[in-house]
Amino acid sequence: MMGSARTAVVVEDDDDIRELITHSLTMQGFAVSTAASGQAGLDLVVATAPDLVTLDLGLPDLDGIEVCRRVRDVSQAYVVMISARTDEIDRLMGLEIGADDYLTKPFSPRELQARVNAMFRRPRTPVSNGAPTASNGSSAHGGVAAQGSQPTSPGSVATAEAPPAEEGHALVRHGRIAVDPDGRVVTVDGREADLTRTEFDLLTTLLGAPRRVWSRAVLLDSLWGPGWSEEHLVEVHVGNLRRKLSRLGPDGMRAPIRTVRGVGYRMEEPDGF
To answer: How far apart are CA 260 and CA 255, in angstroms?
Structure first.
């Protein structure tokens, strides 16, 4: 049992679905606040600093994609988009801007609960932009990323001037990239990368065994939990991670994450990055 209730904000304009989600999350131990519009949902996120946000795409005032973008400006809560839209472009766009998962209506409460449980098995990321952090202390929860992090592997080049880690925090370095697993901070040449928790967990998993080829199925199982088959989730988050790291590196340099065709991904030798 948790020492204190996790908190959730449900943003949904359909009364029945809002009640269904609220009941489902309450049964999981969440203290739930609800909103029927995008702006009201944003106000609740700022006011309550939730651990989880469920977000309908078809809201009456703001599009759910825009609401998600604004949520990401002020919160590192897990975000689950829930929508009747079935087009792949909607799912990909939601994931591109920082959603952690996407459910298509109709869905079962049991599926929602299973996906929420899978997300919360991963460690949380502290908010780096000054927004309040949830008070449930879940940053202490174990997860793949923290457990998989290792000291610099043979062949890695420590060139990044990252901020010094706090006492007891061992940095993991790979070329210009420096990772503080305990503080959950990634820097490139000393500049902090604005990663979502999924992107952070993905990077630290790859760095945990940089010479290993990680299959999409293994990464999916490790980061999202067992029973998932949507490997495009991994592809989208790898693409996001590459872009964010590359923006902070030297011009023209690509992030050292290699696609192994037909298998998955592994870290490359930095080669200047």
So the answer is: 15
